[in-house]
Design a protein that fits this description.
The protein is an alpha/beta fold. The strands form three sheets. The protein has a five-stranded parallel beta sheet, with helices on both faces. Helices cover 45% and strands 16% of the residues. Bound molecules: iron/sulfur cluster.
Length: 193
């Protein structure tokens, strides 16, 4: 059985996906499913403020405990690095065209590094259940990292299951945030990018 490392951006986005992984397996491009040995990985170093980072990390731990999901937490909080890199690397003619591209790349790169060191076959991310994320950029970033690390990146569009996942998270009393994560995405509780 293949080993999947699923990057979890937060617990609510993982709830539906975990349910599907457990009951059916991992979705293939042709719509079929394959059973996988999955582990969830929390690495989201730019959630602002720190107290919110801790809240989301605790929600992830709570959910993994409820469902008895194998998990790892890369517990690194890097606000200063994130802000410095956004200024230096994001913008016209810089390495990244938009902030979220940089954010996806750095988060997923760390997950790929862990996957490589620990012999995982596939990497995926719960970011792609959210209709608020930029799926094209996530796909491009994932495929770039697939080339870099020689590990498959599985892009799956779970957006049709987003509301169902939120409902399941509420039923389990899992904390649900009101913005994506970084300081730039906080705007009076609205989702902004
Ligand atoms: S809005 Fe979300 S995806 Fe974009 S940079 Fe901020 S935390 Fe990352």
């Amino acid at each position: 059985m293949k080993k999947l490392l699923m990057h979890a951006c937060c617990a609510p986005c993982f709830v539906y996906i975990e349910d599907e992984l457990r009951k059916k397996g991992l979705r293939n491009e042709d719509g079929s499913y394959e059973k996988v040995d999955y582990t969830a990985c929390f690495y989201n170093p730019n959630i602002h403020p720190k107290v919110e980072y801790e809240r989301r990390k605790e929600a992830f731990i709570k959910f993994c405990n409820i469902k008895d999901v194998k998990n790892i937490i890369i517990d690194e909080y890097e606000l200063n690095k994130f802000l410095k890199d956004v200024v230096e690397q994001v913008g016209e003619k810089k390495k990244y065209k938009v902030r979220c591209e940089y954010c996806y790349y750095t988060r997923l790169k760390k997950v790929f590094e862990y996957a490589k060191e620990n012999n995982f076959d596939i990497v995926s991310t719960t970011l792609t259940i959210s209709p608020y994320q930029n799926h094209e950029i996530i796909k491009q970033v994932g495929k770039k990292l697939q080339e870099e690390y020689g590990i498959e990146f599985r892009y799956i569009d779970y957006t049709e299951n987003f509301r169902q996942g939120q409902k399941m998270a509420r039923e389990l009393d899992i904390y649900m945030q009101k913005y994506c994560g970084c300081v730039f995405s906080i705007d009076a509780g609205k989702w902004v990018y």
